[in-house]
Amino acid sequence: MEKETVVNSVDSGVATADGIVEALMHGPGAIRIRGLFSEAQIAEARRVVMAHSEDRAQTVTHFQGQAAEEQRLHLQRRVWNLLAKGDVFSQMSEQPLIVDAMRRFLGSDFIMGSIAANRILPDGPGQEPHIDYPYWDFHAPESFPLAINTSFPLNAQVTIPLDPFTAQTGATAFVPHTQHELRYPTEADRFFERCERMEAEPGDAIVFFGATWHCAMPNRSVQDRSAVLIQYLPKFVKPMEDLRAMAGEAFVKHASPTMRQLLGMHYPYPQNLEEIAVATNAEGRRNAMR
Ligand SMILES: O=C(O)CCC(=O)C(=O)O
């Protein structure tokens, strides 16, 4: 029988950015914020996600090696590039409490690396236990810098359920406190015996440090289970989705200052420095003109 345990919880009215950061860095690695988004926002997001995943089973996905072997990939669907699919996704990614927490956790110029939906249909598969980008291929640790660790964060994730997240529908599983030591989980870690579940209602948001071992679980119910997944990164980590290009020039032109930051426009590298027309001092404490 599946364990029915839940993640720590705080109401959106009393949640603080410091409390979120504490839970991610020194606490279990995850925290649920109750009632952060309105019914109307959830309904609109769900409408878009369902419409874009009705007949698109074949977008790229991750951590579904077993489902691919078993020919069951069509029972889980990803919807990428959500910024271009509705204003509600900009509202979600710019939610003020989340932005405030991310500024403290990842630095004031943090960016968004991805905003996508994960839909698991009834009887759809769960994932391999993993950690998230940019740690997601840490099963090959030799491809990372020597002595890399999680004493400072390179990722934060926000999961916004669009359907009830329960043990039956496949609420995300995670092992609390595993973010403290950077490691990709193995069979020997007995993930499924030790895990807790991120149970939540539509409108809640679960914020977690992606170095915490976790995975989507199988949907053993008769209803869909979808969520918006947002990935935030420090300014210097290459984003996973090319959001700026995917959203398009018209979107960028009308973007808010926060959205421009999320698209990486506050930190203008890489550049062709040889081609910069005006010779200025671009970096440094004194008189720097990026
Ligand atoms: O949908 C979920 O519950 C989690 C998805 C996830 O962890 C991922 O795709 O990296």
From TrEMBL:
Signal peptide bounds: none
Domain of life according to the entry: Bacteria
InterPro entries: Phytyl_CoA_dOase-like
One Pfam family from the record: PhyH
Swiss-Prot/TrEMBL cofactor(s): Fe(2+)
Annotated protein name in UniProt: Phytanoyl-CoA dioxygenase
